[in-house]
Design brief:
- The radius of gyration is 18 Å and the shape is globular.
- The relative contact order is 0.22.
- It is built from 11 helices and no strands.
- The termini are far apart.
- Residues 98-109 have low confidence and may be disordered.
- By secondary structure, the protein is an all-alpha fold.
- The protein has helices at residues 2-17, 21-30, 34-56, 60-65, 67-92, 95-100, 108-123, 126-135, 146-174, 176-179, 182-205.
- The longest helix has 29 residues, at 146-174.
């Protein structure tokens, strides 16, 4: 069981280290504040847990088997990524003003928006659903009850990634003096927006 757990955590590390829209979003939100970045992490990992539970109940098998359902989610996911990408490119124009204000306000509303954005970017990705379905069963020990074990692994996966991505939030916070400079902030917003646009276009065009 211990070796299986270590292998699972090692696989979780490789997954978290792979660049993707969630990583881009977490880093970008952390530029506003650590609170905003951490709430984005919590939203993203809520999505990870949801997909893990859905996979545990076998519902993602329906998504994998239904080409229409997958295509609908793929298009919705692509639209979400493109919208976020466009928003970031537009906000890049106002990066100087945000920097002059000390990184922007981060009240309760923006905190909820950060959580919601992290959750949405994860739930809108059909690849995350299919991946959870293929990933989690590999680490269910022989003879173990399938459903509770997969739900437990999904929870462990989410909690582990909260710790992992919190390091990103901490690092960006430490570098905030440099990263919040108007020119640097604007360029990071442009790069983040461009990456999300490309990822959205790729998701929309894939067959």
């Amino acid at each position: 069981m211990l070796s299986t757990l270590l292998a699972f955590l090692g696989a979780c590390t490789l997954i978290a280290a792979s660049p993707g829209p969630s990583t881009v979003l977490i880093i970008r939100q952390s530029l506003h504040s650590r609170r905003s970045g951490f709430l984005t992490v919590l939203g993203n990992e809520t999505g990870v847990f949801v997909w893990g539970v859905v996979a545990a109940f076998g519902l993602t098998a329906l998504l994998a088997a239904s080409e229409v359902a997958y295509d609908v989610m793929r298009v919705v996911g692509a639209v979400v990524l493109v919208v976020f990408g466009i928003q970031m490119l537009r906000q890049a124009r106002h990066a100087k003003d945000a920097a002059d204000d000390g990184g922007g306000q981060d009240g309760g509303k923006s905190g909820w928006a950060s959580y919601r954005t992290g959750l949405l970017i994860n739930l809108a990705n059909p690849k995350a659903a299919i991946f959870a379905m293929s990933f989690l069963p590999q680490f269910v020990p022989e003879g173990a009850p399938h459903l509770p074990t997969m739900v437990g692994l999904a929870a462990l996966w989410a909690v582990y990634e909260i710790g992992y991505y919190s390091l990103y939030v901490w690092f960006v916070g430490r570098m905030k003096t440099v990263l919040s400079r108007a020119g640097v902030r604007r360029r990071l917003e442009q790069v983040s927006g461009g990456v999300l646009l490309l990822l959205g276009a790729r998701l929309a065009l894939e067959s």
